[in-house]
Amino acid sequence: MACCCTPEPPKMNSKFRTALWIALIINALMFLVELMGGAYAHSSALWADSLDFFGDVMNYGISLAVLGMSLYWRASVALVKGMTMALFGFIVLGKTGYAYLQGIPPEAMTMGLIGVLALIANVISAVFLYAFRDGDSNMQSVWLCSRNDAIGNVAVILAAVGVFGTGSLWPDIIVAVIMSVLGLTAGYRVIQKALQERKEHQSLTL
């Protein structure tokens, strides 16, 4: 399908595919755990993290589907994923504002326990995906997703400690805002690289 001027897909597809499947399964399980745990604990940060897990499942699934395609199509899919990551940031901001209006402090113990479990899951995913962090925009996007999740999990644990110590919902809200910023900045970075790769591919095929 690719012409002689089209860069070949990465030769590490087999290893990358295996890493993606492992990360997809882990993230799917943690999405369900955090979705139910976030609803039970009334935690915006935990609920936001569950949405992040869901977004990652979709991202990993899409990445698996386009591994054998040309750079142009991999970059096009990465562009959509970057927009999705940025959209996630805006969704979290909206949910955080709603939680602030409700004014109900989350249940700290549940937050902390699920946060630790999610961190372990994301560290495992990050270890498998680390080798592909400097690949094309498609590979970079899955690495950024995994990295952001691990950072978000640490933040959720710190928020749980803060909620437990103060009885306030502010630690939960602050963490949710941090996670939204991570989604926005990572999305912007992936969008930029994807647009650059699409442009480079088009120039090579002219």
Automatic annotation (TrEMBL):
Record-annotated membrane-spanning stretches: 19-41, 53-73, 85-102, 108-130, 150-167, 173-191
Location of the protein in the cell: Membrane
Membrane topology, from the record: Multi-pass membrane protein
Domain Cation efflux protein transmembrane: 20-196
Domain of life, source organism: Bacteria
Record bears the keyword Lyase: no
Record key words, sorted: Ion transport, Membrane, Transmembrane, Transmembrane helix, Transport, Zinc, Zinc transport
Protein name: Cation transporter
